[in-house]
């Protein structure tokens, strides 16, 4: 399975960091990342990726037989989120539209937002350092279409104005 490339089915883009690298959970790691979200009911769209990760974990010498492995997906109440990462040293991932025309950095920032409908090209890999698990290397993103924006909450839209006497109600 090493270095083999795969492409997801169309899903909803989430937390895209595709034109500028970001510091990830490990402070020594800076890179590009994004996630794709599928509804749990659409099992044929994502189950093969889950199976691919589990198969790699059971076969690769870095993860074989280990417990508490980290996997690149989380399951919520009605959806599954699959995370992809790319180290800064490899440069920004290639991003194209549905006709495979490359998107400029400016177009990536404008058109690839949380909610866009995309496909993601990736390569699975096993690792064992401070922790062990399977990751998905982000290779490219294909914009399939617009979608409903996943809103980032504006605090003024979420919270009511409260007076100084009401601060205890927050805790």
Description:
The mean pLDDT is 88. The chain is of the alpha+beta class and 171 residues long. Strand 7 and strand 8 (132-145) form a beta hairpin. The protein is built from three helices and eight strands; from the N terminus they run βββαβββαββα. It has helices spanning 43-59, 105-111, 155-158, and strands at residues 6-7, 11-23, 30-39, 73-75, 79-87, 94-96, 117-128, 132-145. The N and C termini lie far apart (50 Å). 23% of the residues are buried.
Q: N- to C-terminal separation?
A: 50 Å
Mean pLDDT: 88
Radius of gyration: 18 Å
Instruction: Count every beta strand, where a strand is a DSSP E run of 2 or more residues.
Output: 8
Portion of residues within helices: 10-25%
Overall structural class, as computed from helix and strand content, comes to alpha+beta
Question: In what range is the share of β-strand residues?
Answer: 35-45%
Helix and strand sequence: EEEHEEEHEEH
SSE topology:
Blueprint: E1 6-7, E2 11-23, E3 30-39, H1 43-59, E4 73-75, E5 79-87, E6 94-96, H2 105-111, E7 117-128, E8 132-145, H3 155-158
Parallel strand pairs: 6-8
Antiparallel strand pairs: 1-7, 2-3, 2-7, 3-5, 4-5, 7-8
Question: Which terms summarize this structure?
Answer:
alpha+beta, 171 residues
Task: Provide a brief overview of the structure.
With 171 residues, the protein is α+β, with helices and mostly antiparallel strands. Helices cover 16% and strands 39% of the residues. Strands 1, 2, 3, 4, 5, 6, 7 and 8 form an eight-stranded mixed beta sheet that branches.
């Amino acid at each position: 399975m090493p270095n083999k490339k795969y492409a997801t089915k169309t899903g909803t883009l989430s937390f895209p960091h595709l034109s500028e690298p970001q510091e990830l959970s490990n402070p020594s790691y800076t890179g590009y990342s994004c996630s794709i979200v599928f509804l749990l009911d659409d099992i044929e769209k994502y189950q093969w990726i889950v199976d691919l990760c589990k198969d790699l974990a059971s076969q690769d010498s870095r993860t074989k037989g280990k417990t508490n492995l980290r996997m690149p997906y989380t399951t919520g109440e009605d959806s599954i989120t699959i995370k992809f990462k790319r180290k800064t040293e490899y440069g920004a991932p290639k991003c194209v539209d549905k006709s495979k025309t490359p998107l400029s950095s400016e177009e990536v920032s404008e058109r690839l937002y949380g909610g866009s409908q995309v496909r993601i090209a990736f390569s699975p890999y096993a690792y064992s350092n401070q922790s062990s698990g399977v990751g998905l290397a982000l290779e490219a993103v294909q914009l399939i279409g617009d979608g409903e924006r996943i809103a980032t909450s504006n605090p003024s839209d979420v919270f009511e104005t409260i007076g100084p006497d009401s601060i205890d109600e927050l805790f």
